[in-house]
What we know:
The protein is of the alpha+beta class. Helices cover 37% and strands 27% of the residues. Strand 1 and strand 2 form a beta hairpin.
Amino acid sequence: MNKVKVFAPATVANLNSGYDLLGLAIDYPGDEVVLTKKSSSGLVITKIEGDEGRLPLEAEKNCATVAIQAYLDYMNCKEGFEVEIHKKMPIGSGLGSSSASSVAGVFAANILLGEPLSKKELVQFAMQGEKIACGSAHADNVSPSLLGGIVSVSSYNPLQIHEIDFNLDLFVGVVHPDIEIKTADSRNVLPKSIPMEDVVKQTGYLSSLLLGLSQGNEEMISFGLQDVLVEPYRAKLIPAFVEIKKMALKMGAIGCGISGSGPSIFVMSKNKKIAENICNEIGKKFDSLNINSQSYCSAINKEGAKVVCEYK
Length: 312
Ligand code: HSE
């Protein structure tokens, strides 16, 4: 095979209590990458669509090609590729936009080389795309985008990633208000040190979330979807966040929080209708503040990155 088109889904990272450690994939939106083998080595970006001209066309600056190059270097492979990137989600949205492009790039390259590595082994290269995009090689977006489902990053050095076997139907709604927050800026508002008391509280939330997911216990999940470490600082960057979260919980969400580094807000619920109703109300709230928004509701995506089309 010389050419392939792949899709990598958007993701909700952190899940409140798991800053840089937890993430899940949603069905849509997601990015597509078309990769074509070329006769000489090196990576050339031939087209980027859907980015309003904002993303770099230079291969050494674009997260997708940086991730592919990290993979090729590791494989000691001199193969060259033409790369087309179709952005299907807003940049700086908290939906894992750079991750989806990085994941799609690496996943496509691995397909064209005959799948020598597993999806899990590709995470380390997609993380290099994150590093170029925001200065931090976190794995909580790229892991679920590659693998699907809910993923826990237990360790960065050495990298340890575990797919969480959750035992109930869960739906996720995400509302993206049309304001941009750069991940680097959203990381910079966080304090450099935190009180032990808060660490203990957050560890309790995290363990409740993980146990609740594996036991299918909604109350434990709900308790675990809290955040005293990050949300208080980032909430200030999102108009009406506190009010919106209160409303979402009152309307029956199991949990509500900032998706990744924001400004998107996510809700988790037992059925799709609840998530859709809450997303509608959040949209109305943003309308009242003269902020446009888009919402996406789906079950948790179990597949992750996938081939859309193989060309002979
Ligand atoms: N864990 C990262 C953060 C995700 O919250 O900064 C970025 O999307």
